[in-house]
Design brief:
The chain is α/β, with parallel strands linked by helices. The protein has nine helices and seven strands. It is globular, with a radius of gyration of 18 Å.
Length: about 260
Amino acid sequence: MTGPGSEAQDGEVEARGRVVLVTGGSRGIGLACARWFLAQGDRVAVTSRSGAAESDVDAGIGQFWSLTCDVTDPEQVDAAFSAIEEAWGPVEVLVANAGVTRDTLVLRMSEEAWSEVIDTNLTAVFRVAKRALTKMIRLHRGRVIMMSSVGAFVGSAGQANYAASKAGLVGMARSMAREVASRSITVNVVAPGLVETNMLAALGEERTTQFRAQVPLGRVARPEEVAEAVGFLASAGAGYITGVVLPVDGGLAMGL
């Protein structure tokens, strides 16, 4: 696997931007995050099972890279990180965004539906975060941002597996944050509410309207609004923030 550019020489990293990896970055929130970092001049790699971004990204030559990677496969994760490191250097910002839903009521939920969601939304985040942190610790810097959900806090019928996976990210992030804080690495969580994505569209208009009525701000978020929150946690201004959950939910889970 080869990359779009060679590794930067000493002194070039700052000029060329940080190395950013967004999992599940081919569309929706992940792609919006990729675009945010690209706008800052960073070098951005995204992963997806297909390896193809939903639409073309005006990133400039060598600044954007779409890789095929199933985050539930340890060998594919290691291969993706190794390729990025060979081409650009260690990942300095990780946005663990890849996720799936397999909604159904608990009494109808199969072991397979439970395991697939937990494996993708929780175990795979552990896997990519651990891989990123091994290099960040040597750099004595780094940002890890995990994508949770308002569903982790309010609960929703038919989403026991999804809610469990997204709630698990909070405890994992806080444990990791304590472990790596001495190396100037931060680990934080973003918890979006209703966002204009394919996942929301799959609910149908009637159900979406019902959910929207529960949002104090009275509307659905744009993926770019979630990306702004992710970008803030990766910014220099958030250097003293770690182990937090930042809701981007229009007030849906207010106080929880």
